[in-house]
Amino acid sequence: MHSPAAKLKNETPILDDPGESEKVTSRARLSIGELLRKPFDVRSIALTGLFVLAIFYTMYFMRSVLLPIVLAVLLSYLFRPIVRALARVKVPSIIGAAVILVALLALIGYGVSSLMVPFASWLEKAPAGLSELQHKLMPLKKSMTQVAQASGEIEKLATPDSPTKTAVEVKRHPLTEMLYMRTPEFIAGAVLLFILLYFLLVYDGVFMSKVIELMPTLSDKKTVVSIAHDIESHVSRYLLTITIINNCLGIAVGTMVGLLGLRNPIMWGVMVGVLNFVPYLGALTGMVCMTIGAVLSFDSLSYALLFPTVYLACGALEGNFITPWVMGAIPHFKPGDHPDFTYILGLDVGNCRRDLGRPDPGCS
Length: 364
Fold this sequence. Notes:
The protein is mainly alpha-helical. It is built from 16 helices and no strands.
């Protein structure tokens, strides 16, 4: 049996001497070089690659089931502090979770009923709006057509003649028909999401108690509880902060486009706030939708392009300044940790080493 002091002596010391640090770095480089000189097992690498591809394909085909599960887990982190706060005032978790879900459903129902009329009107105007959009974008289309014709002529001069190919036109389903086809899948996913969310909120701590029972010693149990608490607090704080920021962004963009004269500013604000949860692709989709809506609403193309410009400016201000500043102002968050989910999920190496009672070379 070794005493705790002897264990601490055997730990790797913190290297304050630059010469010692260079020696350790050189030894690490030599070990990496020796590892790279060893022959690789091609079969093992191929099997690992196939296994990773199989995982991605499985996730793709099971997305209708995996997406509600992931959303339920994330929402449970967001609403779990509310359930615990209600439990502290003698409200059972069964009733507290039910109250939260009823309030959430009421909010979603009110939002859908309020936005259904303008959204349906936009869908009805979509076929005629596309021809109008094509007519308004005709000057840009002419310039692009001229560039394409010039590049085509250059390509014909550089390549020999090839036999003509018959063009096959594939007819796609209209947007409304696609929405009708996706409605049953969406309803099933929503039902699964709310059922899982309810049970995750009601049976809070059951899974953690099972994990704690598997730990052999009391110190391991305390370590697991500490790490789980850090993960939950980081995820809850991050989700709450991002939700507030996205709502503020939606309110700001909706107010500005409403003042500039775009119809249904509430619908555009909700769209901006919801799409901002999706990194990069959400903002791109929102800009495309707002550009189409503005071009269809105003005769002047230059004035219509003002709306996506406002959206882009607000999004850039939020992503580059506001969100890093807010994350830096919150305890246990740093400005550069916004896109880094390793820190948010509690996988920071320094935190784990401190939780396990081991010294961290990066900490003073």
